[in-house]
């Protein structure tokens, strides 16, 4: 049934046909756009005709009529339309990343987006006009890594979807997004969780933690000190490596990590045990790194430096991040500290909303006791 002006204005989210391939697409946000769907040489095409209300129903029908005339003459409207509307996937991705850059809390997000897209998407999609990218093109990018690298493939799909959504938002592309998951690719690819091999960060059993720390204490160098400090505070390696003296409150025996350096973008306070304080060394200027590189003045140690310590200790399968699991297992299985205290020590956000409502503070008193007990446990084998 042909559309009416009233129907165009009041249509619910979805796809609404006017006949002969002309559709009105309504997004959940209420945004409305016109698309002419046609076939040429056996391949489906979606031609964006503009957004409503700038393009009225009557105007959309005029544009569709002109496009059908070109098709009847053997021309492709997508290739003959205004050249200023041509946008490659590469250019769309670059523009999207730039538009998001100011909202990301660190430069790594932009680098990760660029790296993923450049490695997997650009070889097949990079030079294509965003208007002609279809489901088959997206599948050709995703399928080779969907089972082998499901986590990477899932992120890649989301980023391709975002690039194509961006192209639609700026008026260069129309129609459904061929990279969307729900109701589309979920029928063509297995659910990521069904093929994802869950790989936890390899960790030392907590029963062996004191033996490890005793061996670590005999090693010299800033990386070994940083690793020991990371273990004692159950921190993430990046939080420890980038720590500056202005974050250390020696009077209150506290490490205060600013929100911009935390994964959850929320300030995190870490009580420091006697053992952790001893690893800090002599206090430097406020902006000095606590664990600065010996070979690169003013720079932090690299993310591989602590891993290198583990490798030299012949612990090839163990990861630095795994010590957080060691701490979690020890605290949960051998102590009586409440779960919310342990989760707060790890800077985890409680998923249970009711539980989180009762744990509005950071439970510092109990956490200080917990970290002191952890230090006593893992340092009991250290002598001298």
Give a concise summary.
The protein is α+β, with helices and mostly antiparallel strands. It is elongated, with a radius of gyration of 28 Å. Helices cover 45% and strands 10% of the residues.
Salient structural properties:
single chain; Double Stranded RNA Binding Domain; DNA polymerase, domain 1; four-stranded antiparallel sheet; three-stranded antiparallel sheet; 17 helices; 7 strands; 10% strand
Characterise the protein shown here.
The protein has three domains: 5-81, Integrase, DNA-binding domain (Double Stranded RNA Binding Domain, 2-Layer Sandwich), CATH 3.30.160.390; 89-195, Tyrosine recombinase, N-terminal domain (DNA polymerase, domain 1, Orthogonal Bundle), CATH 1.10.150.130; 206-378, hpI Integrase, Chain A (Orthogonal Bundle). The protein is 45% helix and 10% strand. It contains 17 helices and seven strands. It has helices at residues 5-10, 57-72, 77-80, 89-101, 108-125, 135-146, 150-169, 192-195, 209-217, 222-233, 237-241, 274-278, 305-312, 322-334, 339-345, 353-358, 364-378, and strands at 14-19, 22-26, 32-40, 43-52, 248-249, 254-257, 268-271. The strands form two sheets. It has a four-stranded antiparallel sheet, with helices on one face. Strands 5-6-7 form a three-stranded antiparallel sheet.
């Amino acid at each position: 049934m042909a559309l009416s002006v009233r129907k165009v204005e009041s249509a619910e989210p979805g796809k609404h046909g006017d006949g002969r391939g002309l559709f009105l697409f309504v997004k959940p946000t209420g945004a409305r756009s016109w698309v002419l769907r046609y076939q040429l040489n056996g391949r489906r095409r979606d031609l964006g005709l503009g957004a409503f209300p700038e393009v009225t129903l009557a105007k959309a029908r005029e544009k569709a009529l002109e496009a059908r005339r070109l098709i009847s003459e053997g021309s492709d409207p997508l290739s003959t339309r205004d050249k200023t509307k041509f946008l490659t996937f590469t250019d769309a991705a670059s523009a999207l990343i730039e538009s998001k850059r100011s909202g990301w809390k660190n430069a790594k997000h932009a680098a990760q987006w660029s790296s993923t897209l450049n490695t997997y998407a650009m070889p097949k999609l990079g030079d294509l006009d965003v208007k002609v990218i279809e489901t088959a093109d997206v599948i050709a990018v995703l399928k080779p890594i969907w089972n082998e690298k499901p986590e990477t493939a899932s992120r890649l799909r989301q980023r391709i979807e975002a690039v194509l959504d961006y192209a639609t938002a700026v008026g260069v592309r129309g129609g459904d997004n061929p990279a969307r998951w729900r109701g589309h690719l979920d029928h063509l690819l297995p659910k990521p969780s069904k093929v994802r091999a869950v790989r936890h960060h390899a960790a030392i059993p907590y029963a062996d933690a004191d033996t490890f720390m005793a061996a670590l204490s005999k090693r010299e160098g800033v990386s070994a000190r940083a690793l020991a400090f990371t273990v004692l505070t159950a921190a993430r390696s990046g939080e420890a490596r980038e720590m500056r003296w202005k974050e250390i409150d020696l009077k209150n025996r506290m490490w205060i990590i600013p929100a911009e350096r935390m994964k959850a973008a929320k300030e995190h306070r870490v009580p420091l045990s006697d053992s952790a304080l001893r690893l800090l060394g002599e206090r430097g200027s406020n902006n000095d790194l606590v664990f600065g590189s010996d070979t690169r003045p003013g720079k932090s140690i690299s993310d591989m430096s602590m891993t290198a310590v583990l490798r030299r200790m012949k612990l090839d399968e163990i990861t630095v991040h795994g010590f957080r699991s060691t701490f979690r297992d020890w605290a949960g299985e051998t102590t009586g500290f409440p779960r919310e205290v342990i989760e707060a020590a790890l800077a985890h956000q409680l998923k249970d909303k009711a539980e989180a409502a009762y744990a509005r503070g950071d439970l510092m008193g109990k956490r200080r006791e917990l970290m002191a007990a952890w230090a006593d446990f893992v340092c009991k084998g250290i002598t001298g």
